[in-house]
Design brief:
Residues 130-196 form the HTH luxR-type domain. It contains eleven helices and five strands, in the order βαβαβαβαβααααααα. It is α/β, with parallel strands linked by helices. α1 (11-24) links the parallel β1 and β2 (27-32).
Amino acid sequence: MIRVLIVEDEIIIARFIEQQLQASFRCSTRIAVSAAEVAMAMPEMLPQLVLCDINLEEKRTGIELVAELQQSYVFEVIYITSYQSRSIIEQASATRPANYIIKPVDEAQLFAGVKLVMDRMASQPVVQQRQELLEKLTPVERRILRLISQRKTTREIAGLLHFSHYTIKNHRHRICRKLELKDENYALLRWVLEQGEKLAEE
């Protein structure tokens, strides 16, 4: 199931998009009507696809917001906007969007624009999905993962990296969130063991 965040400050349009997505695709959705709500939703939901309006009636445009989010998260983006000018499209292009849908949008336009992206995401190779997850991690977090793959305990890792035991526990918690794992202990160990030599190459 693909996680989709809808960033749209007009709630009626946001609800319409959400209803159409839920009716046509196997996905979970969440709506954010402001940059503040986006900031809360991203770490909680870790969306794989963001549908974003460009004019958010805030200091930042949707394009600027997406560019900022891309520094910390890995996701596909589809812009849904009334902007059709060449300059705006070129600005949007810099964030490598998966699609660009012009408002007003109807059921057929939305389905066509999202369907191609959803199908491509669903068919991504496992290796690419693993790489996208690892790209969310900091260098320190990747090093901790490699040590976990060597069966090092939290205290052993703390000693090797010269961090406190509690600092490593906090790092493990953040790693689990980024890798979309619920059980912070055994699930993380299972994940790194499944990656095996591939993880050591990172």
